[in-house]
Fold each of these.
Amino acid sequence: MLKQQQNLSGDEKAALQGFGRVTTDSPPVFDPGSAIEAASSFFTANGYVVLSACLDPVEIDHLNEFYDRTQEERPHAWGLRNDRKPHHQQQGLIFSQPLLDYPELDPYTQHRSSFPVVASIFGGETHVRFSEFNFREAPENAGIGAMNFHHDAVSADRFTRSPYMPCDWLCAIHYLTDVEPGTPVFCVVPKSNTYNTLKEAFEGLGEAYLEVPIYAAAGTCVLYDTAIFHTRLDGDGVRARRTWHQYYARGGWLPTDTRYVRPPTPVLTNWNLFPERLALHPDSKTKLFFSHWNTAQCEWVASGFADPIRESMPRGNQ
């Protein structure tokens, strides 16, 4: 995305801060237990969907306790020391690969509430692949500057393929704290997933162009197509926000209306690693879910999951 921004004109760069058409209307919210089909349809039409009460109070307490515990035990992994990592810039705090060392988190990777909706969006559970799992925090008094609107990983054929869905990558953001006015808030531009720049989305969508902040209680989950434009709007600089982010890729080969076979989505990163207990899981469905390997993962597996190989990988020694 940085390289793409460098090639933009001055007006286009300014537009990345948004066009100020921030709606005060709350987006519809769907029950992940009883409204899977409706939630999936809304996602298909808009590029995102909000799911209510995906995490129960016990899970919210567990994950917040995990934050407190690991920030005390492993501050370097969170970027809490002076030698902050480049990928923490303008992101607050990030624990990039907690699954490597904490099996207690495994049940969340296919969470009983949000995962069935993810599977529906991708066209079935066998088409869902794990990509990344991380925790983030915008701390109190962080002084974090404004983040540009941007998209995450994208595939060029999204402009021409028919049908567009299923999307290539999907991210699930679970709120671990209440997000209310004054809190840093996730904000999306619905229907912007087939535009190359935010300016093009503004011009192409016309009156339908909106910047939608998603205020919601802890336990809420937002699913979004990584191709839609989104950002984090700053809060009041005092209130903190904690979120769990999980990325999924589409696996399997799909026919399309234009008579070519659509290949599986490429890997999301070249550095993310899956621990042995998940990559070589005895359950075939779980092993398929964790089968979307990048080159770093292949080399780590070939080494017998050797610690020195892991430690040589980017973010592998957190």
Amino acid sequence: MAMKQTRRGFALLIAVIFMSVMLAFGLALGSLAYKQQVLASTAIQSQYAFYAADAGLECALYADQQQGLFAYTSDMSAPAPSLVCDGASAISASVLSHTGSQWVIFNRLSLDTNKRCVDVTVYKRKNTGTNYLFSQGYDVSCATVAAPNGAHFVSRGLSADY
């Protein structure tokens, strides 16, 4: 009779161990799935920001090379040329600096019906034949970029020397 008493609860112990292993396995898979979802979401946001930067760069290149919009001027009080991209005018256009050798112009544009934003900075050099463009795209609207209030967003930048 003493042998029977030592075996009592053995099945319960095996069941608890088995359930613990299954719970740990399930939690590990859940954690992995969550991390994959976050990674995929970040990749999508990065892609939106990259394409916004690419669109801004292409618009600025076209405006400068085909339309002559950013041609260097020696008039130090000249207003900043306003870039038009995808049928929309720049939200803001300003001259960051204007010297005897370089003109730096900044334009902020809203793309994709106000869902994305891009900042384009044009560096026009006098008489050197080389220019520099930098386009910074965001995966959020320009209103969010201007006043983030703790919002998280992704930005990607592209540049061109020509």
Amino acid sequence: MTIFSAEVSWQRGNSGFADGRYSRAHNWTFDGGAVVPASASPHNVPLPCAVEENVDPEEAYVAALSSCHMLFYLWLASKKRLVVDSYIDAAIGVMEKVDGRMIISRVELRPRVVYAGGMPDRAAEVRMHREAHELCFLANSVKTIIEVRFD
């Protein structure tokens, strides 16, 4: 078993609270020392209570799924002796009401992979993405539909 941790910290400061007009800005601190400024999404909490430039949990969720998929894809490519020069994914998450609850119902991964030298044919690349999806710890942990798109 492996355990992962993050510290999430928030301070009220000088703002009110009971009126709902408090800052949603907070920090995520990870075991390696990285500190990420976070906030509620301005889609859910109006400015200035939300901080637009901070990462919100919904964005982090999409990024984490994309990152997990990418890391497994790169590992699979390296095992096949394929050299990847770059991997860029413009991933999106769709939040909607399902069964009366707001959920991120779907995440679309849109990877663009550039290879050095030999590159796999389209069918082999699709198979590698399917395998990366099957291996991804996070994809295996959620009920969100995760699609890999090649537009």
Amino acid sequence: MTELRGASILLVGASGGLGREMATLLHDRGALLTLAGRHEESLRAVGVPGAIVTGDVTQSGVPEKFVQAALDAHGKLDGVIYAAGAVAFGPASEVADQTLDELWKVNTKAPMALLRASTPSLQAQAEAGGSPFLLALSGVVSESPTAGLAAYSAVKSALHAHFSAAGREMRRLGIRLVDARPGHTETELSKHPLAGQAPAFPPGFQPRDVATRIIEAIENDEKDLPSTAFAALG
């Protein structure tokens, strides 16, 4: 069982639909938060206590900046949650290079860089007897690549592959990696795509329900959250 009370958690993408819900749930459990994102005003609007750090996580050096902000604020780092993301819609034959680059940087490169940046601090907590973790969301498209979302499915599948392999490496250091793969969730992500227009999705999960399931998985030391782990929410 991972104790969240007093745990120092870095939450990247804290002002997003899922990030905001997870921030509230973590605060309610007594976690010491560092809220990270691009805009200070949006992070403060989350409305929970915590250190605030801003930057574009896809840029070189920013993941390290986020980790250092958590260390400066709380003296340690027990967990990292990557809840940032970007989506694009449209036929695979029409996705522009710039869109491909952005999808890759936000959904894959950034969490990979964040893992690298946070490993020393998380390992230190493992050696001190803690239960450090890093969680990201590759989503259901990494299990079931979807027409009209080919590029998005591809970069999320790459994230899933990275976590699957890196998880075996991190386990030897005492660090738990968790890949969450919920189905479509009713956040603002699909309403602000990098390109294209969202199709008429069936009703999705509520963000609070998905966030609650994720936080419970962290507490219960679960090592993987496939789409089936969210089936009871539908």
